[in-house]
Amino acid sequence: MERPTIPLGLGTAAIGRPQYINIRQKDASAVSLDTFRQQGWEVLEEAYRQGIRYFDTAPGYGLAEPLLLDWVKEKADDRIEVATKWGYTYLADFDPNATQHELKEHSLSKLNEQWLQSKHLLPYLTTYQIHSATFETGVLENEEILNRLAALKAEYGLKIGLTTTGAHQLAVLKKALAVEINGDLLFEVFQVTYNVFDQSLAVVVPYFEHNNRRLVIKEALANGRVFPNKKYRDYEPAYQKLQELAKKYDVGIDAIALNFCINSLPVYKVLSGAAIPSHLSDNLKADQIELSEKDLQSLKVLAISPEKYWKERKQLGWN
Q1: Euclidean distance between CA atoms 70 and 54, whole angstroms
Q2: How many CB atoms lie within 10 A of CB 137?
Q3: Structural domains in the chain, sorted by start
Q4: In this predicted model, what pLDDT tens digit does every residue of 60-89 receive, in sequence order?
Q5: What is the dihedral of CA 133, 135, 140, 144, to 10 degrees?
Q6: Which of the ends of the chain has fewer CB neighbours closer than 10 A, N or C?
């Protein structure tokens, strides 16, 4: 019997390119591109089988967007929602030794260029996002871009959103929440980094509890940092608490971390970034448990400053 739609979605970065920013390393160089594509297809199939209907992708994720396009057209299920983004170009060409993996460009020409490809995801495409909006690129003040996004919203019935990253993501989010075009709020979907270590986004909960806005969580596993690692001695109390709860609920640490995100914010979806079916199955156990209020509170005290969190993240390599 098919599982009902669940509060988890699938982020496709890890199935679209052999390397991604993560603390847990594996050798992707020995896998052919055809094999890698087939493995990605298997992850999509497993996600669907287990009830996931929300899929997040981007042109900057290597072959992820075209792979997802082929897959959704074969599935032909109008319950599937696809969110994609514009603003990053994938450069590594599946070379594990590449020195530059991606290029960020928030220009009107890049938006128009990538839209020409991404629009093929229609009618499953429901959400179109700025990929990693920051103050540095000026994208939230670029009237040409904002007007173009508003036009796409009106013509195709899309939800316009953005993803945030970095120590200043809270400030970026607050600015985006107030952007209007012709008197109407532009952004409806906000994909943010939130996990047991970086909980800074919790202060915006009032913006989402009573508004028709979607909050989507990415990097719920802190790029692998929720798992015990001797490099992070300061996290030892956190590791002990996560292991204690994993044992209590008879699931993995990943399920505890994901359930924390599901239950501590008014989320629309929490994204799994699993690259293989078995890891996805482990992640999805987050939907089979419910942390008690006491246990949620015990995880809320694990938060660190955004500055420390993002300084550590910048030190993670592509692997």
Answers
A1: 16
A2: 17
A3: 9-314 (3.20.20.100)
A4: 999 999 999 999 999 999 999 999 999 999
A5: -100
A6: N
Average pLDDT, the chain: 90
Is the CB of residue 65 less than 8 Å from the CB of residue 58?
A: yes
Element (H, E) at 16: helix 13-16
What token pair was written down for 292?
Answer: 């008690």
Distance of CA 213 to the CA centre of its chain: 16
pTM confidence score: 0.92
Residue 37, φ and ψ in degrees, nearest 5: -65, -40
Q: Are 164 and 190 within 8 A, CB to CB? A: yes
CA dihedral (127, 131, 134, 136) in degrees, to 10, reads: -140
Backbone φ and ψ of 132, nearest 5°: 60, 65
At 231 the pLDDT is 85
For 243-271, give the DSSP string.
HHHHHHHTS-HHHHHHHHHHHHS--SEEE
pLDDT of residue 318: 40
Residues pairing with 272 in the sheet? 10
- Residue 134 in tokens: 């920051």
Split at pLDDT 50, 70, 90, the class of 122 is very high
Residues 6+ apart with CB under 8 A from 7: 262, 267, 268, 269, 270, 287
